[in-house]
Amino acid sequence: MSTRKISLTAALFIIIYIVQEAFVTQLQIAGGGFSLFLIFALLWAALSSPNVGALTGFVAGFLIDLSQSTAGAFGQWTLVLVLVGFGISYLGLGYENVRLNPFTITFLVSVSVLAARILYLLLSLLLGSNVGSFASIITSLLLGLLWSAAVVPIAMPVVARVFDFINDTRLRL
Are 104 and 97 in contact (CB under 8 A)? Predict the structure, then answer.
């Protein structure tokens, strides 16, 4: 990876993280809303190779762990996003249909956001954290899935164009 790619990608991740922390977390949205940074990171991983997907998950998880709004143990989001980032990039690696079909990538990213939240919840339970009632968990997961499914199609063309610009590729979404 060249210095240009690393610099531009790191700057982009930090900018999206700052937008998430400064603006999106301040919105009062039903069901807890959505994480723009998580959606961005998983879209980026879906467009990448498995190695880059795992690295994307590591960096995104580390930044989410640094967030003041995260209540879990430090490193928990990092572990979750390394696994989910690798998984989503592995699923989309060999199949051009996944990368070229907007519906498929929307479904894949939305389900990956749900999988990340469920894995985070399970790790929280293993670590002995109080996670709330069953009804509130199910409501939060379902509304988070709906918000992700609504935000991914809006963010996808922008992320794909920036990904193409930084990596000098021409993916069509």
Answer: yes
